[in-house]
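Let's sit down with a protein and look at its sequence and fold side by side. We need material for that, and I hope you will provide a protein of your own picking. Once you have written the record down, we can walk along the chain together.

***
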Amino acid sequence: MQGAAPTDMELMSSMMQKIALLEQKVKKQAQEIQLKDRKIAELEGKMKTLQKGEDAPDSSRAEELEMRCLQLQTQVWEMERFLSDYGLIWVGESHEQLEDLESFKDEEKLPARSLWKPGEAVASKHQIDFDLILENVKDLNALAGEGISQIKHTPGGARLRQPESLPLTLYQNGIVMCNGPFRPYEEPSTQQCLQDIMDGYFPSELQTRYPNGIPLQVTDKRDVVFQERRLPRSFPGHGQVVGHSKSSEVQETTEIPGPKLSLEQFLNKLPKSLIRGGQVIDVRDSIRATLQGSDGVQSSEVIQVETPRLAALKRVKTAEEAEPPAPDICTLRIKSETGEQTYIVKMLFTETIGDLRQHLTHTRGGDSESYEIISTFPQRVYMDNSQSLQDCGLIPNASLLLREKTPSNKGGQGCKQLNSF
C-alpha cells in the first residue's frame, strides 16, 4: 500500500531542520578557518625573523669567532717558532691521510691502533744499554759540577764544599738509588729513570728535589743478583735443595749499599729519656745495655740453656716433622751481670720466674737468689718466683738482664718498676 503524501507543513518542517544543521556546520567551519589563519600569521612572523637573522648575523658571535681564529693562528705561529729553534719543520698530514681520518667518524669504525687499550700507558720492557748509561753519567756529572768546589757561607765566614753525590747501584736484576728500596728493571719507574739517563738527561724523578742536577756515584754490580729480604717463617715446611747450583759467576746479595750506623749513631737518633706514667725512663742507657755485645766494645758469648721445651724442639727437628713449633713457647734472651754471656732460654708461657731461675742455675751454677732479673724498657724487677711468664708480659719474646743483689734490695716479693732518677 502506498502511504499518504506528506503535507505542506511536514515538508516545511523537514526543510527548516536541514537548514538549521547546515548553518551550524557553516559556523563551525568558519571558526576553524579563523584559527588556521592565526596560526599561519604566527608562522609567517617566525619565518621573517629567521630570514632577518640569516641576512644579518649576530655581531657578538662574529667577534667571538674572530678572536678564536686569532688565538689559533698565534698558537700555530708559536709552535712553528719552537720547532724552528730545534731545526724542525712541521709538514702536516697528506690529503690522503686526512681523507682516511674523516671517513672513520664513528668510534666503532676506528682502527684498533687508534683506540687506547689498558696497559698501553705502562712502559714496556726494553733493552738497557749499560755502557751508554755509564758514559752519559760522566757527562751529566760534569754538568752538575762534579769535582768543582763551591763556596758555602758559615756563621764564622765561608769554606769550600764539594757537591754531594747521589749513589746509584746497578745490579743484574734491578737498581738501588740513594740507599732506597730495590727497584727491579721490570717496573715502569725504573725503566723511565734509566731511559732518561740513556737520553742524556738527569732522571725526571729527581727534578723536584734537585732542579739543578746532582752528580751520580754509580757502582757497577751487574754480576750480582739482588735478593730481597723475606719475612721470617714465610714458608712453614722444611726446605730441600734440588738440582744443580747456580753458576759461580753470578753472586747474590741482600744488603742495601750505603754506610751503616754505628751503635753511637743509632743511639743518638733516639730520645734521651721518656716520661711514662709519671716516671722518667732513660731510653738510651737501657737500649745500650741491651745492644752491648753486638756493636759495643764487649763481646757476648751466646749460651743455649737446656730446657724441656728446647729438648722437645730438637726432637721435632731431628725427626724432620713438618709441624711448626707450638705457639705457646716463648724465647728469652738474658744477658749476664758482666755482659760477657747471653743465655737463650725457651720456655712455656705458663712456666714461672722460679722455673727460669732453676734453668739458669742448672747452666750457671751458684745461688739462684744471688741476682735479680730485670727488663730494660721499661725497667722492671721480677722477684715473685710464682708469677708466670705470661703474667709478667714476657711473651712471645723478651730481652732481660741479670743484676747482682745488694744488701739494700735483698728480700721483698713481686714485680716492681724502677725509677730512672
In short: Residues 105-124, 244-248, 293-299 have pLDDT under 50 and may be disordered. The first strand starts at residue 150 and ends at 154. The two ends are 147 Å apart (CA to CA). The longest helix spans residues 8-55.
